[in-house]
Amino acid sequence: MSIETRNACVDFPIFDAKTRSLKKAFLGRAGGAIGRNSSDVVVVEALRDITMSLKEGDRVGLVGHNGAGKSTLLRLLSGIYEPTRGAARVRGRVAPVFDLGVGMDPEISGYENILIRGMFLGMSRKQMLAKVDEIAEFTELGDYLQMPLRTYSTGMRVRVALGVVTSIDPEILLLDEGIGAVDADFMKKARVRLQALVARSGILVFASHSNEFLAQLCDQAMWIDHGRIREEGDIEHVVRAYEGNEAGDHVRKVLEELERERAAQAGSGAAAATGSNGG
Ligand SMILES: Nc1ncnc2c1ncn2[C@@H]1O[C@H](COP(=O)(O)OP(=O)(O)OP(=O)(O)O)[C@@H](O)[C@H]1O
């Protein structure tokens, strides 16, 4: 599996822009540049000359200000958008997780929504039937899963959606944040599942404004600025460039913490193995 883009650009033509008061070319603090294409139609230049090459095992975080182009890049990689110019080629089974609520039907039960949402993300009905009990247990929603989804609170819906998303087996996982609405205890549980999901996905591209979350799931990052790749490299370096030393130090702490957790897990795994041999 792989992702390759070469000088990929995405323009959004805006036919109903108030053109008379528009400056010739506008580059604001937020959002992509506003310009005109060759037919003099106003366009938002959401992505400019994106060249990237990802292979199995790559875990890339996208950082950048509001409107920088992160979501547009994820949509380009998922095939929802074609490049206006340049090329984008993606090989592999893609699971686009942009909006946790997409593909959910308020009129049917939580249980049925689990099946449907899973199929929307590329799983077969049979595969989902095999997973549904485990997902139901993860959500801790009990009998609520028999009730129509419209009777759920926002956080309860997110639990269902997260349960499904973290149960799939994608080759390429494209994740847009928006995972904020669950309570802290549940998030802790979800984090473990998300990390497991990422570990079994071949390629991850994850857009988020949470450096903590990014550091937990990614090792590389790209800073998207006004539709262009401004900086790329390891995640600490990119966050430091984008947000400064304090944020960079925070990322390093999160990475060190993860490293300790992993070492402790490996240690206890080794101890358990030794124990069973001895007994
Ligand atoms: N469907 C659309 N039609 C017109 N312009 C769009 C459309 N989608 C995005 N844009 C523009 O493209 C630019 C990039 O938007 P995008 O959603 O990719 O940014 P983002 O980095 O994900 O931002 P945020 O962090 O705020 O979610 C913005 O200027 C936005 O106004």
UniProtKB/TrEMBL annotation:
Q: Which UniProt keywords apply?
A: ATP-binding, Nucleotide-binding, Transport
Q: Check the record and name the CDD domains matching this protein.
A: ABC_KpsT_Wzt
The keyword Transport appears for this protein: yes
Which family does the record claim for this protein? Answer: Belongs to the ABC transporter superfamily.
* Biological source species: Rhodococcus chondri
Quote the Pfam families the UniProt record gives. Answer: ABC_tran
Report domain ABC transporter positions. Answer: 17-251
Record carries keyword Transport: yes
MF (Gene Ontology): ATP binding
Q: Which PROSITE patterns match?
A: ABC_TRANSPORTER_2
Q: What is this protein called?
A: ABC transporter ATP-binding protein
